[in-house]
Amino acid sequence: MSVSTDELIDEITGIVAQELGLSPEAVSPDADLRTVEGADSVKVLRVIARVERARDVELEDEDVFGASTIREVAEVVQRALTETAAA
What are the structural domains, with CATH classification, of the chain? Predict the structure, then answer.
């Protein structure tokens, strides 16, 4: 099943908001995840783990650590999904 980057952004924004106790509207897809109110490294890792489970994909650590915004995380997930589908 194909998913757009915009759909992934919405999904990840919802997960971030839920983990941080914020409304999705309060979370910008272009904000640095490390600077979002209430964020810390453990919560960001929980977000990544939830995304991996939700999309049944394993993200490479170097890709995850290189992504600082929700939009960048969505792009990493999109690439991983595309690679998985091609395999």
Answer: 5-86 (1.10.1200.10)
Cβ pair 39, 33 in contact under 8 A: yes
Residues 6+ apart with CB under 8 A from 29: 9, 12, 13, 69, 70, 71, 74
- pLDDT of the residue at 49: 97
The per-residue pLDDT for range 18-61, each reduced to its tens digit, is: 999 999 999 999 999 988 989 999 999 999 999 999 999 999 99
Give the residue from 81, 84, 48 showing the smallest Cα distance to 66.
Answer: 48
The neighbour count for residue 55, using CB atoms within 10 Å, is 19
Say what the pLDDT of residue 48 is. 96
- C-beta separation of 8 from 16 below 8 A: no
Length of the chain: 87
